[in-house]
Amino acid sequence: MKYVDEYRDGKIARTLAAAIAAEVSPSLEYHFMEFCGGHTHAISRYGLEDLLPPNVHMIHGPGCPVCVLPIGRIDTAITLSRRPEVTLCTYGDLMRVPGSKGSSLMKAKAEGADIRMVYSTLDAVRIAEAEPHREVVFFAIGFETTTPPTALAIRFAREKGLGNFTIFCNHVLTPAAVQNILDSPDVKLLGTVKIDGFVGPAHVSTVIGAKPFRVFAKEFKKPVVVAGFEPLDVMQAILMLVRQVNQGRHEVENQYIRAVTELGNAKAQALVAEMFEVVVSFEWRGLGDVPDSALRLRAAYESFDAEKRFGLVSHPAKDNPACECGAILRGVKRPRDCKLFGAVCTPDNPMGSCMVSSEGACAAHWTYGRFREKNARVEAAA
Amino acid sequence: MRVTEVLPNEMAKVTLDGVSKIISTALIDDVAVGDYIVLHVGYALAKIDPEEAERTLEMLASAGVA
């Protein structure tokens, strides 16, 4: 696989690991947050933490769209899906996200709600076209990568004159969440972790470019290295972060230069700006209310807004009190710190959202990381 | 993901390791057969720049020894 396999070469990974080990200062502890769930998954899947020296710590950030969607919004989607005229189209990984009182879209579907998993927003538009008597609602979630596809779906629906297509908008913004992790009133409440630098997102940056991360380098004096999703990309980014820390630099560097430019995808950005506007505040699971962190449709496009069409109101709902997703999403706690982890909370029966998506910190730890700990214990005992 | 066929309405056929998919290229410009793209939920988000990809590989091969 061209442009994939080359970036997964184990020999090069070990050479990069040796370079990192040679360059870290033994007297320093390095804490780097990978914001994006795609990186969390890559780090766990390829066992990258095993390649790093013990004083380089990777902290998993909140960049998993399924994980940060608050329960109240899931509840609203479930309520909507129970309306007899509604067909709710959703990305597959939302199906198992737990809502209030043990509910989920999966259970609502089993109970008869018309919920359909789609791969692409185009599938949702096709369903609306093929079934004009149904009110087709697309459950729109995700960061800057999934917003342009939602915008295009609206454009296609408009061009085709589909009056039965709307979206339930939950699109969120990466820079606002990074800012929140570094600087918010909640940090005082939940505590915070030491972060010496960020591995910046891959796909998100293809859309927004590397530029929006400059503010974190400049104002918060944190190095940011935008990195691709392959294991060698992540290893190289860590090496670049180590060098910035050692040299006292805090800049935005672009490791994923084969796909990310300084300014990003102008076409996608223009499309999103035409249809969406920033909302004053939006609730994130784990982060609470984050200012200027989400999008809604502009007034000119409100005929495509499911919240307007169906008069939807979302009520805040509480997580299972023992669930540590909130602290885990902030990087304050790790999956193994949660009492529910692996006991009652597994990917088959997730209690919290971090266990649902393969990009979630708990799911990644369940699938890969826990075996690593087990091996370490065996080695220590031997 | 390599583009193997450019289709009407800003669509394209792409392939990875023998698996083919029809995707939308409405978010990028000037798509041609042979281009490598970054694919996300059925849409091409960006084209991979072959020169930069080569440069990154060279850097990786030298293990980031700059």
How would you describe this structure to a colleague?
The complex is a heterodimer of chains A (382) and B (66). Chain A has 382 residues and is of the alpha/beta class. Chain A is 40% helix and 18% strand. Chain A is built from 17 helices and 11 strands. Chain A has a 5-stranded parallel β-sheet, sandwiched between helices. In chain A, helix 7 runs parallel beside helix 8. The model of chain A has no long low-confidence stretch (mean pLDDT 91). Chain B is an alpha+beta fold and 66 residues long. Chain B has a single domain (2-61), classed as SH3 type barrels (Roll), CATH 2.30.30. Chain B is built from 1 helix and 5 strands, in the order βββββα. Chain B has one helix at residues 50-61, and strands at 2-7, 11-16, 19-24, 37-40, 43-47. In chain B, strands 1-2-3 form a 3-stranded antiparallel β-sheet, with no helix packed on it. In chain B, strands 4-5 form a two-stranded antiparallel sheet. Chain B is elongated. Chain A binds chain B through residues 1-4, 6-7, 9, 12, 15-16, 18-19, 91, 119-123, 142, 145-146, 148-149, 152, 203, 206-207, 232-233, 236, 239-240, 255, 257-260, 265, 267-268, 271, and chain B through 2, 16-17, 23-24, 26-29, 36, 38, 40-43, 45-50, 52-53, 55-57, 59-61, 63-65.
